[in-house]
Amino acid sequence: MGDLLGVAVLGAGHMGADHIRRLDQVVSGASVAAVADPDAERAASAVAGLDRVSVHTDPVAALDAPGVAAVLIASPGPAHEEALLAAFARRLPVLCEKPMVPDSAGALRIVEAEAALGRRLAQIGFMRRYDAEYRRLKALLDGGSLGRPLMLHCTHRNVSSPAGFTSAMLINSSVSHEIDAARWLLGQELTAVTVLRPTPSSAAPEGLLDPQFVLFETERGALVDVEVFVNSRFGYQVRCEAVCEAGSARIGDEHTMVVTTRGGAREEVAQDYLVRFADAYDRELQAWVDATRRGEVTGPDVWDGYAASAVAEAGVRALETGGRVAVDLAPRPDLYAPASR
Fold it and tell me: pLDDT of 244-301, one tens digit each?
């Protein structure tokens, strides 16, 4: 336990660079041993000032670099399958950002590959499970004092969408977090999806269906609705209200600085997810490092990653067809049986 865990970070963009900073400055017990990004200058910039870090454009080369004992995948989603399989081949523990693999067929291949190893190696980066408010809500629902959950009302708003953001990405990128949070909070699989499309906001780029209203059904009859609005202009907001038989509970109301001056007051609103969920990312990464150093894997697993991809895929079909689409999940391997998670 005395040695630092050497981590190869794949991807040095917005998320990857923030994880590199976190490993270097926030998390204990680990250090960055290698970084890989197709843009060599971006990779070098992300580790500027760090000692003994090798820089690569090939992710596989980073996995084989000296001192690497674990992998953090923060590259774009389409690159995740190859990186995960390469890590599995080397028996390297992995923290993989969501989406694990964007398409359900590829995600299922990851499930099958890890199950064939007979042990868990990968944790998937659904960081809301580490957020203090989400954890309090989960404990409350599991405690049963409010009775059976009937509905979850969720809100997911961004200031603006990045270039190239598509209507499908509102579901398979943005709402993927609500998909996992709902499965985790309720302890149920999502079984069907319907997507309603109001008239797009004038702030949305041409052709982008924004906002959207997504409705999920669960295996035990609860309903989950998500308002996703990625060009709200004013801030980043994530809220969730659980409505149960004997009460309700809501999280996500901003508890930030309120500045009062002559004539009024102003409340700060977070502008992106790295601000709103900074503590959750810190806890997630620390928990992963601690578990990895103990030889364990905890947190969301590759079944959770596969389920999120399968539900999102059904959601995109519902968006395209305008109808209700059932979620088709493969049989769950014994490695991911609920009792073992």
Answer: 999 999 999 866 667 777 888 777 777 777 788 899 999 999 999 999 999 999 999 9
Instruction: Name the one residue in this structure whose structure tokens are 């980043």.
Output: 236
Q: Rounded to an integer, what distance in angstroms lies between the CA atom of residue 232 and that of residue 295?
A: 43
Residue whose C-alpha is closest to residue 271's, from 226, 238, 241: 238
pLDDT tens, 210-238?
999 999 999 999 999 999 999 999 889 99
Strand order in the sheet with 237-244: 247-251, 237-244, 149-157, 223-229, 212-218, 190-196, 325-326
Residue 75 corresponds to which tokens in the numbers above? 């590259």
**What is the 8-class DSSP label of residue 79?**
G
Task: For 216-240, give one letter per residue: b (16+ CB within 10 A) or e.
Answer: bbbeeebebbbbbbbbbeebbbbbb
Q: If residue 300 lies in a helix (H) or strand (E), which one and from where to where? A: none
Q: Please report, for the chain, how many H helices and E strands are present, in that order.
A: 11, 15
Residue type, position 295, single letter: G
Most distant CA atoms of the chain, gap in Å: 66
- DSSP alpha helices (H): ranges in the chain? 14-25, 40-46, 59-63, 80-89, 104-117, 132-143, 169, 176-186, 273-276, 278-293, 302-321
